[in-house]
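Bit of a strange request maybe. I'm writing a small parser for structure token strings and I need a real example to test against, not something I typed by hand. Could someone generate the tokens for this chain?
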Amino acid sequence: MQEVYNEIIKNIEKERVLKDEWMSKHTSFKIGGKADLFIKANSIDEVKFICTIAKQKNIPICLIGNGTNILVSDKGIRGIVLKLNLNEVKVQDEFIYAEAGALLSKVASVACQNSLSGFEKLSGIPGTIGGAIKMNAGAYGQEMKALICETTYLDENLELRTIKNEEHEFSYRKSFFSSKKNYCILVTKLKLEKGVQEDIKKEMHDLLVSRKIKQPLEYANAGSTFKRGENFITAELIDKAGLKGYNIGNAYVSEKHAGFIINKGNATAKDVLELIEKVQQIVYEKFNKKIELEIEFIGER
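Reply from user aminoacidic:
Good idea to test on real output. This should exercise your parser:
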């Protein structure tokens, strides 16, 4: 990796190319071992440059945005972790062009400033546009798929591609990109509607207040740990199973919202995985329902 490091710092400042970097510093769960190389890319050209080197050297590359919705292994991540610091958001008429690293809260703020409605329900999700597209993020009945016109990305051959909405193959918490580990989302075009700025602002505020009341935002977490069931609400089953407050190490099932696993201090990925397995086991035994993960595990098992 030293050779790769030396190659990369010819074009990117050393301050943005970190060796043996703890991923716990870069995830909302505050969990994760060391990445061999952790690089912050500030432009599409930098992304292409880093991905080209990784491809030439046959080095695995892992893309992250804001570090939400992921659980990183205690053993860390081999190869390169590439953090997309592409966060420009532009407005043209009723369209928003957002780079993959832009926080959803920033997109919502820009939309509000321009009296554009349609993004309010997604405004409190703590991730980035890239991650939100990949998993078709949603909240309060709103999903990304309803807003996206097209997305531009780098494919496995480092060619720029653009796909329309229907080509994203959106479904519940999935998209075309879910299984395309070597594809890098760069920018997306969203279609919103003209609205009244004060109404937009009020809805965003009300939803933020609701989140603070209902979700364990005071603790490190990766968002909703489990997916909604096809004919049941997962958090309700976990609650009925008496699992609120159940813990392994410092990983706890939240007492505020049973759909969240939280880190109360120095929880490890091992703690979280064992707790997830225990919750899944007990819910299946009591209700004959299989619950699936919404968060993604990354790194060495």
